[in-house]
Amino acid sequence: MPTAISDLHIARAEPLPEPRALRDALPADEAAAGHVARSREAVRAILRGDDDRLLVITGPCSIHEPASALDYAERLQPLAERLKGELLVVMRVYFEKPRTRMGWKGLIYDPALDGSGDIGQGLHEARKLLLACARMGMPTASEILDLVTPQYYAELLAWGAIGARTVESPLHRQMASALSAPVGFKNTTHGGLAAAIDAIHVAMQPHTFPSVSLEGQAVAVTTTGNPDGHLILRGGSDGPNYDAASVARAAKALRDAGLPERVVIDCSHGNSSKDYTRQPLVAADVAAQVAAGSPVPCGVMLESYLVEGRQDLRHGREGLRYGQSVTDACIGWDATVGVLQGLAEAVAQRRRVNHRDS
C-alpha cells in the first residue's frame, strides 16, 4: 500500500457552486447594478474631498439572522434618505468574522449557527441579502476576509474593508488591488498606522496572483490597482485614536506618505475600549471635530443593531433574541438614530464654519 502523504487532516471535501452559477441563480439586474455603481462613486467623491458629506457605515457586528438584518435595512433606508444632504449612509453587512482563537466564523461559513458548515448555503444567503438591500436602495459594506468568497458577492458592495488582523497580509493587499469598490484599511490591533499606510500603497499597484475565476477555474489574475484605498482608525491595545490629536497625527502620517489626509473613524473596537455603550461618545467627539471645520474625518463606522448588547450563541437559532448580535455588542436602534442625527448636524455646522471663513 502506498504511503499516504496528502490530505492527512481533511475530514471532508464538498463541492461549492461555481461563482458564476450563484450569480446566475441570484442575478443583479440593471437597477441593482446601477445603484451599486452610483453608491461607489458617491463614496469615492467623499474620500477624494469632492463631496463634503460624511460617510457613515453602520450595521450589525456580523450578520447571523438575515430576516432581522433586512428589517434593519428597511429602517435604515428612510433614515438615510432623510439625512442624505449631510450623510452618505452605508449598511454594514459583515458575513465573515476573524477570530483570535475560536468562535462562530460568520454566516457564510456556518449559516445554521450549529457548526454544520454549509458554506454553499451561506454564500446563497449572503448574496440574497445583498441583492435585497440593493433593490431597496441601501448601499452595503463588508470586510473582505477570505480570498475566494468575494467572487460570489463582492460586486454588490459599495465599500470594503481589510481588518486589523489581515492588514499586514500580502495576499489581502493583492486582493484589495483587484476589488472594484473603495477599500478601507484598519490600523493594526496594537494601534500602529504604518502597516495600513503601506497596505494602501501596495493595493494601489498592479499585481499578478493566483485566484479563482467565475467558472471556478484556477487562474492568474493581473490587476490594475485600486486607487481608492484609505485609512481606518479603530484604536488598539495602545489606546484609542479617534481624538483630535490622534487624527492630526494620522493626517500627518498620510501626508508624509503622499496620501490624501482623509480618515474613517471606527467608533467601536479599540476606540470604544470594547464597550459598546461608548460608541455614541466616540461619535460625538468626531462630530465635534467635524463641526469645528476639520476636513480630515470623512467617515464613521458604528456597530449597531435592532436590540442593543449581545447574546451568547448556543446551538442553532433556538432561543435567540431577534435582532441582537451574537458577536460583538452593538448599540440599539434608538441610539443609532441619535448618533446619525448628531453627525448630520455636525456636517451642517462645518459648512457654516467653512462658509464664514471663506
Topology diagram in text:
Elements: H1 19-25, H2 30-47, E1 54-59, H3 66-82, E2 87-92, H4 119-135, E3 140-143, H5 150-153, E4 159-162, H6 170-178, E5 183-186, H7 194-204, E6 208-212, E7 218-222, E8 229-233, H8 244-256, E9 263-266, H9 279-291, E10 297-303, H10 333-357
Parallel strand pairs: 1-2, 1-10, 2-3, 3-4, 4-5, 5-8, 8-9, 9-10
Antiparallel strand pairs: 6-7
Helix pairs in contact: 3-4, 6-7, 9-10
What does this 3D model show about the protein?
The chain has 358 residues and is an alpha/beta fold. Helix content is 37%, strand content 14%. The strands form two sheets. The protein has an eight-stranded parallel beta barrel, surrounded by eight helices. Helix 3 packs parallel to helix 4, helix 6 packs across helix 7 and helix 9 runs parallel beside helix 10. It is globular, with a radius of gyration of 20 Å. It starts with 18 loop residues before the first helix and ends with a helix.
List the keywords.
358 residues, alpha/beta, eight-stranded parallel beta barrel, two-stranded antiparallel sheet, 10 strands, 14% strand, amino-acid biosynthesis, DAHP_synth_1, transferase
As an assembly, this protein is single chain
In this structure, how is the largest beta sheet organized? 8 strands, parallel, barrel
Give me the strand/helix succession: HHEHEHEHEHEHEEEHEHEH
Strand order of the largest sheet: 1-2-3-4-5-8-9-10
- Look at the structure and give the mean pLDDT: 96
Distance between the termini: 83 Å
Supply Rg. Answer: 20 Å
Low-pLDDT residue intervals, each spanning 5 or more residues: none
Q: Estimate the global geometry from the Cα principal axes.
A: globular
Number of helices: 10
The secondary structure category is alpha/beta
- Overall strand count: 10
Q: Tell me roughly what share of residues is in helical segments.
A: 25-40%
What portion of the residues fall into strands of 2 or more residues? 5-15%
